[in-house]
Design goal:
Elements: E1 2-8, E2 18-24, H1 47-60, H2 73-80, H3 84-96, E3 100-103, E4 107-110, E5 125-126, E6 134-145, E7 158-168, E8 171-180, H4 197-205, E9 209-220, E10 236-246, E11 250-259, E12 265-266
Antiparallel strand pairs: 1-2, 3-4, 5-12, 6-7, 7-8, 8-11, 9-10, 10-11
């Protein structure tokens, strides 16, 4: 994995040296459709969204300081192996979210905003050092008869079960199993799903997850694909049990996440 280091220089307040490590695997994080585990995926976010999400998470994690000046746009684009136009779309989005101040003739300055409406606002896993770009690889998406113990509120006869591996900076760190109970959910296939499932739910089903509850504890690596984490099934690991509510439909999502605490930490920041 290649660590690209941005040296962030002077601000108008004086000389400040900032550094952000953007971990980029050449040809994979922003380009390829497979990762180092060999799992194929089809729902990558557009490159400009990936870049803006990466920068937003670095800001929220405190790895990119409030007031830091970003490198020149052409340098950033070259380091990220994208066009200047793509980078500018990412920076435009950050500006719209109130996280970037673009000063003509001076540069682009970071504005810290902890409650930014980012794509991954509900995703709590970060690299141990903070931040990291989340991606996902779908392992299966199946329409199943509603299990008796699924306590969601819409009561559909068939529900969607999604299993996937989550990555940070292209490294597998977690396994997820998500159950979605919503009208038409069981008709979705793996090819329909974005790396951000909440975007897919809102776009294709009109279901917006408005709030979640996470319970963090100890679990065991499941036997259906623990090898993707290079951890034997049944090995104790960190575990998150999540419930997700829509304002209109009530409880629609129940999920579990098993993650390797040596590669990712669960982070919840309070203002």
């Amino acid at each position: 994995m290649l660590a690209e280091t941005f040296r962030l220089g002077n601000t108008e307040k004086g000389l400040h040296q900032y550094c952000i490590n953007l971990k980029i695997t050449p040809g994979s994080t922003l380009d390829q459709q497979t990762d180092q585990s060999g799992v194929e995926h089809h729902g990558s976010l557009p490159k400009h969204l990936q870049i803006s999400e990466l920068l937003i998470r670095e800001v929220v994690a405190g790895r990119l300081a409030d007031g830091a000046r970003l490198p020149p746009e052409r340098d950033m684009a070259a380091d990220l192996n994208v066009s200047v136009g793509t980078l500018r779309r990412a920076l435009d989005r950050m500006t719209e979210l109130g996280m970037l101040n673009r000063v003509q003739g001076s540069g682009n300055y970071v504005c810290r905003k902890d409650d930014a409406a980012s794509v991954y606002a509900f995703f709590r896993l970060e690299r141990p050092e903070g931040g990291g770009l989340p991606t996902a690889r779908i392992l299966s998406a199946q329409s199943l008869l509603r299990p008796d113990d699924l306590k969601t509120e819409t009561g559909c006869s068939h529900v969607l079960r999604i299993r996937r591996v989550r990555l940070l900076d292209a490294e597998p760190v977690a396994l997820e199993e998500i159950w979605l109970d919503a009208e038409g959910a069981h008709e979705l296939t793996a090819h329909d799903l974005s790396e951000s499932l909440y975007l897919t739910f809102q776009r294709d089903l009109g279901v917006a997850i408005a709030r979640t509850e996470d319970r963090v504890g100890l679990g065991h690596v499941p036997d259906w694909d623990g090898a993707l984490l290079n951890i034997a099934p049944g090995t104790p690991c960190a575990h998150v049990a999540r419930k997700g509510w829509s304002d209109d439909l009530g409880l629609v999502e129940v999920s579990q996440t098993w993650f390797d605490a040596s590669r990712a930490h669960y982070v919840s920041r309070n203002r």
